[in-house]
Design goal:
The longest helix is centred in the middle third of the chain and has 13 residues. The relative contact order is 0.17. This protein is α+β, with helices and mostly antiparallel strands and 203 residues long. The protein is built from five helices and eleven strands. A hairpin with a 4-residue loop joins strand 5 and strand 6. The protein folds into two domains: 47 residues, no CATH class; 147 residues, Nucleoside Triphosphate Pyrophosphohydrolase, CATH 3.90.79.10. Helix content is 20%, strand content 34%. This is Nudix hydrolase domain-containing protein.
């Protein structure tokens, strides 16, 4: 196992910061490694706390009387200078339970109301998003969405189109569009018309 000797905060921003660590690898090679993190300071980095607290939440929700559509957002992202399909998602505020975050974020991004589906911890606990670059973790929340799509609570910095996609549209999206990988895996489950999309949660 490597040994971390020193960690320094390189930026001081609101939602994401860059940290640089100096270490020695298991092969006794000096290592300089940069990590992006939601942590506000060095002491709150997961490499310090070793706690798996959710930084964000991803919302997999079904829509319609037959629950045969999935709620997606088509969002412009500066990192690729293009649009990408994702599940609605957002950051957990300090002291906020991530289930409450999911309800709030779905309303803010889409105008829809979320009815949570209770699941075992292994299906919703925080998992690491891109561990090679960041210590960020996201929990996944499942539920049924209802109501009318609205955009009045979206932030001015966001460019989001709400998409209520049926299976035919999901097939097209996976084939033709840019899609976030966590969303893509779940959409592959959704495509099986012979099963309830949430059937796997009962395993």
């Amino acid at each position: 196992m490597g040994i971390i000797h020193d960690v320094r905060k390189l930026t001081d921003l609101s939602y994401l910061n860059l940290y640089q660590l100096h270490a020695t690898s298991i092969h006794e090679t000096p290592v300089v490694y940069n990590v992006a993190s939601r942590a506000k300071n060095v002491e709150k980095l997961k490499l310090k706390t070793h706690e798996n607290m959710a930084d964000g939440v991803i919302i997999y929700s079904l829509y319609g009387e037959r629950r045969d559509r999935v709620v997606l957002v088509r969002q412009y992202r500066y990192t690729i200078d293009d649009y990408i399909y994702e599940f609605p998602a957002g950051l957990v505020e300090e002291g906020e339970d991530f289930h409450a975050t999911a309800v709030r974020e779905l309303r803010e991004e889409t105008g829809l109301t979320l009815e949570l589906v209770p699941v075992e911890e292994g299906y919703e606990k925080p998992y690491f998003t891109t561990i090679g670059m960041t210590d960020e973790t996201c929990a996944t929340v499942y539920g049924y969405a209802s109501g009318t799509v609205r955009k009045d609570e979206q932030e001015d910095s966001e460019e989001i189109e709400v998409v209520l996609a049926d299976r035919q549209e999901v097939r097209r999206i996976l084939r033709e569009e840019k899609v976030a990988i966590m969303c893509a895996y779940m959409l592959m489950h959704f495509l099986d018309e012979t099963k309830d999309p949430f059937e796997f949660l009962n395993y």
